[in-house]
Structures are given as structure tokens and as C-alpha cells.
Amino acid sequence: MYKIQEVIKDKFWIVNSVYGKVGTLRFREDNKYEFFQHDSNESILYDSIDEIFVLEQNQVQTNKDLVMIDGLPTGYTSAEKVTGYDFPVFKKSKNSTTLHAAGYWVIKFTGSSGWQWALAPKLQTLDKYYSKGPHSTEWDAILQIKKERRIDDEKLDTNST
Asked: In the chain, which end has fewer C-beta atoms inside a 10 angstrom radius, N or C?
């Protein structure tokens, strides 16, 4: 029996054995499953994935497992608070040297990317780009992005007239 890990819902899976990845599985338009074996470069068709494959259940992290710093999410299961900043800052472990800002942030990247949101970005990123935050939820960050884009659009309109 092979274990399969779903990559695209009901369409594409990675196939693993006890020794690691052995191939891929895809659902075809003719309602068959095609198993491509990496070692032999051969494809085998199956009518059902239950014939030889067992679906691995992804272990999804719950928000309960994630650490909060001053009421803001970190996105990590462990975090060490760092003091001396105007907003909550942490590192992933005691030995880590990389500092992150807790919460959701909106960051204005240069180039075509423009405004994007990030959960617990590195402090180095916040120092490099214009940013606003922290926000307690992704939704709040998205609303802030919409507001910033609207302001940017208004600036463009007034400059073009």
C-alpha cells in the first residue's frame, strides 16, 4: 500500500512509500487515476484510488496551538517575546537571532507588488519597506490594504490633473 498526500483537491496527489516519494497520482477526465512511478517512468491506470492507495490525513495546526504575543498572533507554535520595541516583537526560539513583529502587517513593496499583508514579518522587512500595523486579524490587514490602495489611487488622480 502506498500513502498519498493530496496537493490539489480531488485532482493531484504525491505518492509515498515507507522509503519516501515514489511518484504522483492524478485524476483524469476519463474518470481514471493515473499513477506515475518516478523510478521506472511508467504510468499505471486505476479505476479507484482505494485499490492500492491510502490517503494521508494532513495534520492541520489549530489556532489553539499557535502562540500569541500581547494578544497578537505569531503564526508559530513557540515564540520568545523580546522587549524594547514600540510593538510586540519576538523570536522563534531562545537561540534564534531573527526578530519578527507579532500580528498582521501591511507592507508596501517596491515595484509591481505594491501593498501586501504579512503575518509576523521579519523586523528587517519592516525596516526596509513602508509598513503599517500591527493588526490582530488578516481581515483587518486586508481592510487596511484597501484603504492604502484607495489613498494611492487618489494621489495618482490628483497628480495627473
From this structure: C
